[in-house]
Predict the 3D structure of the following.
Amino acid sequence: MARKSRAKDLKEAVLEGETRLGYPFAPFGKKEETPILAGEYGRLSVEDGDDIEQNSIGNQQKITLHHLEEHPEIKLVDTYYDNGYTGMNYERPGFMRMFHDLKSGRINCVIVKDISRLGRHFVKTSELVERTLPEMGVRLICINDSYDSADENADASALTMPLKMVMNDYYVKDISHKIRSSISAKMADGEFLPAAGSVPYGYIRNPQRMTYDIDGEAAAVVKQIYEQRADGASFHAIARRLNEQKIPSPGRLKSLRGATKAKAYENAIWVRGTIRKICSDQVYIGNRVHGKLKRDKVGQEKKKRSEEEWSVIERAHPPIVAVALYEKVQQVNREESQRRDNYKRRTACGEDYRDLLRGMVFCADCNSPMSAAKGCARPGAKTPSRIYYDCNGYRYSAHARCVSHSIRQETLMQALTDTLNQQVMAAVEIGQLAGSLDGYPGAVLYQSEAKSRYASVSTKRKHMESRMEQLLTDLAQRVIDRKEYEYMKGQYAKKYDELLQEETRALSDLRAKDAALSVTRKWLDAVKRYQKLPTIDRGLLELLVERIEISKDRGIRIMLNYDDPYRPISEYLERIEANQDVSF
């Protein structure tokens, strides 16, 4: 026992000496610990109230850096920040980017100042901390909460975490209630002015007077829109004329003036929806309207409110159009709406596959989604109304982009059914092929050889690890000198790498059949399920089909999730033939 202890001491002394001499060494055979690759996350929003200085992004950075100085084993890979985002929103840009890096494996640890930075919604944050991150193998460090999920005493710290999450949830709701009450009071007094990004087209913000001033360039376009609409022009026709005149749309005007750097606005054009919104907004007769969209509770989506719930402040700013012109346009809008309502109530369509195909049909030329529309039949027609798909890029750009790809849903469904039926026919042959692999002599021999090869090379690799360990002991006990040690270490390292690569290849060969059959059987199960169903359902469609593309000549391309079900098995058979020169 004494000699073993002395050898251990000598080994540690050599290791210490090597590190000091600049020769860091990790014994072969000892697995290196997974490196801690951390991402720092910080968040600041108005809900932080009086603690903005304490919770500032800069202060969060200082706290994290101080923690990293005390823990040199943690490597900071990237930083993620969200400034101006509430903790009730879990779709923040920085947060989403961090989660993407967690999923890709770029980072495996998250560091935050405290749990409130991660989020303030009790249920969602609890789900994140107690289930999502642990299942991903992600370490979470909340510095000010003294919580580290990798700490053996983490369970004790975790006992107080739910209480902190509840308090964070309550805090943001209390702050939100106070802010909403304050804004409501200002609205009632006509003193609330939205941010610059919310100012209607045709106006500019005047924060000194808490009102809007007329934007001469855009106001002239607003008048033009109202005059054309009063003459009976459709929203679509007005948008097309403005695009033909190369008049910048509201989004493009913001981009040209430097008010936004968003790429989406650089080439934005006039569309029907923008014209419709302008032609129904009483802001252009000098009224300011608040509360069109409103959420009932913190964290919920905003919903449209009825006009009775709006807060309207009359004569809050200079008007752009006269009241008489505005009322005439509203009458045109009502008449058109009435015509559309009557049109929609005509003959009902036959089969409706819109829910089935939703989000799966795309334009092959501009990659825009293709959404469904209803073409109503004439009154008294014997044929029902039809449902068709068309390119959204063409439809919503007032026909300024792409071209019409209009195609009826029946044509789409026929092509889809034909494709899936072809998969059923192929499944019979592929199922027989997959079933025969277990008894195929070439596959049995290949698996047996791969198993033996893997066992053999694993033994050799482990033996090499032992020799590397012994090499270090020999140096510590002065059986060999350092020069001999360095030479033999290099030779052993080279051989070890070769064995490790060979072991990886052998393991891949051993698992090749299961890998091939796994993919094929998933496809076979999906096809069998299709055969049993009376009609195609959404779940099956998502399992088998990736997307459907329509070209400008109405050509249909159905892209399957299992593009070639033969491929996994054929590649496995080719692998057998290449190694053993056996034909199937």
